Amino acid sequence: MFEHWLVISDMDGTLLNHHDYQVEAALPKLEQLEQSGIPVIFNTSKTFEELKDWVSLLNNKHPFIVENGSAIYIPENYFAEGILPKQESNHKSNSGYRIIITGTEIQPIHNYLKTIKPEAIDFTQCSLSQAIDITGLSEPEAKAAQTRQFSVPLKFEDIAKQEAFSERAKQDGYGILKGGRFLHILGLCDKGGSMNVLKELYERNFNKSYGLIVLGDSQNDIAMLQQADIPVVVNSPSSDSIELDHANKIYTHNEAPEGWVEGVTLALDLKEPLINS
Length: 277
Prior knowledge:
Elements lengths: L3 E6 L17 H9 L4 E4 L4 H10 L6 E3 L4 E5 L13 E2 L6 E5 L4 H11 L4 E2 L5 H8 L3 H7 L5 E5 L3 H13 L3 E4 L4 E4 L4 H16 L3 E7 L5 H4 L4 E6 L14 E6 L2 H18 L2
Parallel strand pairs: 1-2, 1-11, 2-3, 11-12, 12-13
Antiparallel strand pairs: 3-4, 4-6, 5-6, 7-8, 8-10, 9-10
């Protein structure tokens, strides 16, 4: 069925350990995929500022998707001229990326939150020390995490109030996604939709069909997991809530990053009979 594949991966709790963000155990497998010509595409709730550091650290030169499907960042000259849609534009001068915005800018979201005043911690507005306490990130990492352009993570203490807010925001035309730590309010987009936009760009650019190995661990990953050819649910504190109805689904025993390696290894074995099916 597919001779060419993309690996689409969430970050926190999937590739990076949920508790301490460790990734070292996944480095050999990431290198193996690169050498095999299988791009690894990060599809995450993280911001551009966070991802640009991670792709540099992991030597990943491929496109990536930020803020739960809100925008796709594509390295300059990655695809042939004319492949990108007309609405693409430079994120900023000298950034080295082109951006396709699939969500909405953050200012209308801030205006909406000021109007309804949810009883939650706004991660983009809280103090740096509070952001560090919530996430366990270092100071530079927390600063980068707060530089959101398309979404606002909210931390509720009261589940009933969280659910009430979610229903109202949906009725008012916003997207709501539950991640490992936060409830995210954003435009009407998700990881699955942006994943498919990027897949189509690959297929148009290289004139090939691509299968999708997709790895995630939280509710905000379901949209992309459901549309995968091989979905992998990596064991994490958030993964118990994910139930997939898919013939090729894989659930890992280990948590990230070992669980990511386990899931990719099983998926690569499973993809072989799918190539000629």
